[in-house]
Amino acid sequence: MHSASKPVALVLASIVVYYLFGTIRRFFLHLTSSSAVHHGPPNRRWFFGHQRGTWSSSRRTFSTDIKAIQYVMRNDFIYSKPPGMQNILKMILGEGSGILVAEKTQHRVQRTVMNPAFGPNQIRELTRIFLEKSSELSDVWEARITAGGIGEVNLVNWLSKVTLDIIGLAGFSHHFNALNDRGGQTNELNKAFTSIFHSAGWSSVWLPLRAALPKAIQPLLRAVTMKTSAEVMQRISRELFMESKIYLAATGEKDTGLSARDLLSLLLKSNMSSNTPANERMSDADVVAQVPTFLIVEHETTSLSTTWALLELSLHQDIQSKLREELNSLPTATPGMDELNGLPYLDAFVRVVLRLHAPITTVNRIAAQDDVIPLAQPLTDSDGTVHSEIPIRKGQTIHLSLPSVNTDKSWWGTDTSEFRPDRWLKVPDSVQAIPGVWSNPMTFWGGARGCIGWCFSLIEMKVLLFTLLRSFRIELSVPKEVLMVLKVALTQRPSLRSEPTHPKLPLIISVEELVNDAVWKPFLVESD
Questions:
Q1: 451 annotated ligand-binding residue
Q2: Which of 26, 46, 272, 317 lies at a C-alpha separation of 20 to 30 Å from 441?
Q3: Where does heme bind (predicted)?
Q4: What is the pTM of this model?
């Protein structure tokens, strides 16, 4: 053998051995698993298992039992994110441990430091930024309307831009100017987001393969598929961190203007506060890691939820008209957070959207030790034995599907899949047991790891709907039969069957005459 080919052969042999070992190990766990006697869906693919795109199948415990979910949720020191998911997040977030990566004590310390930035009073202040950017999007759309009184927009594209602008200002007091297409950081970030989150390739074999590879091999794949995008996001995150740190050093904690009340500034103030013990402060690397976390959570999830909301309105014109009538009842174009929360039909509409279209569809946890999970509903195994609990082995994966809980007929009734906002005007008593962090759906998860930015996303979404529906009537520009759901990573996005690898939702917009025509007065976001 040629000397130059020996290292290549050695690497290939190592990979083969690694996967053979993993296959044998998984086969042994199949045979000895405590869940082997439990009923599950028939495995129609001997090699791929139930998920066609994976390298090989593995046994997981899937549950929608509320008591089991509560137990896993409350015992976050036992049940943490699987190593594969941790590795993927670290690729994106960089060297530090963002709140999405941090586990156990580190996570609780970070959450304590970050909580002040996401309180109701803070979101109340940031609502003016949501309104300003939503109005800017409305102006851009209005300029696209032709002499015939209608225009066409790709909703996915425009909502991604406006939510990026919003998190830029509300998160870092930074102007990305995505709505103006001025290039620079905006184009870089958009390309990075597209590469990491919008590519259908994430739903293929690469995601589980990357998660399964040892750390020594992972950089090879990262260099091919993610390295450039992750580095762009991390570099911009460091730049935003330094901007905020320099600004605070120059102005001090006495500055109470809106520029000093963005999420990152408040996080830095809380982290440097004399009330925060030195051993509980985050390192600079950990603070920097929160920047892409904010970008991912507050940009991507809100954009996705609002996309589904406007799609549903385009499909249900009666609901759109009823919602617009309520929005027009406010005598101002610049309502505050409390005024928006006081609109019952808007609240009901948002709740049904988030119940049926959870931005994140799956929560996976891996057991750090042998354990027993209690059940609310007894389980009968293949031998006929009734169980009130499930034994779990160390290293076993627990798969929790949020949409399954959000649409379970035993909780929501036989019409659970029907898009009916009126349901929330009289919620079934049974759903009160669902342990979500917000209301009854599991959309924002719950417990110690519940979404810290749920209030931010909720009000941002309400503001976008308020502004756009008062300005425009929206309709689908294509037959609904050509729509499809594009599953990317752990999310679901609307797309077209003719373009199945990219999220897209074309809408027809026309100007809507306001019942209460209020003058828009731009806010000054640099000072009070």
A1: yes
A2: 317
A3: 451
A4: 0.82
